[in-house]
Design goal:
single chain, 214 residues, mainly alpha, 9 helices, disordered C terminus
Amino acid sequence: MTSETTTLISLKEAMKRVDHKLQGLEAQFKEMDFTKDSLTRRFEQHSKALVSQAAQDELWRAVLAPKFTSMELNILYSYVTEVLICLHTRVLDKLPDLVRGLPTLTSILRRKVKNQRVGVVWESVLEECGLQEGDITALCTFFIAHGHRAEYYGAKVRQMYIRDVTFLITNMVKNQALQDGLLKAVQIIEKGKAVRAPEEQKSLLKELLPSVRN
């Protein structure tokens, strides 16, 4: 075997060793990229969760912040109640075959995520009423926060005590999401979109909403 042949063999072996190391490094880089992507996704999810939690905490503070009189609170609560019952009713009108399976607004809010048909109808009802999910979150939070002590007042009683509820909301409620939700609730009711009579309120309010804290 000549020295040139020996040199060629040595070079080939060296190249193989280099290729092997390069393949090892390539595998390590792929693993590092995968780990980086996984960590990035987890960080983004965590960041979104923190933002969502912060927004919910801010909304709860905003709901509890205004110093409403009992009369003012009852009137706002009544508008919120009628809108939530209106939404429940309108969904059932579009899904008559699911009336027994959707006895409360709670059941609709739970089912809309997993049941595409319920979800589509829910979205259409919100669009018809000019509402968005953020408005529903605000109204649900208000209902849950004050439902244990507020009373329902019918339209005639509301008009007797407060002529301009819009001014009350814009003057007392500083949180934009809550203010928008309450203003839309008043607008919907004043336009006559609520379809349930006042005497039906008590039965329909039972377990109306789940706790948004959960």
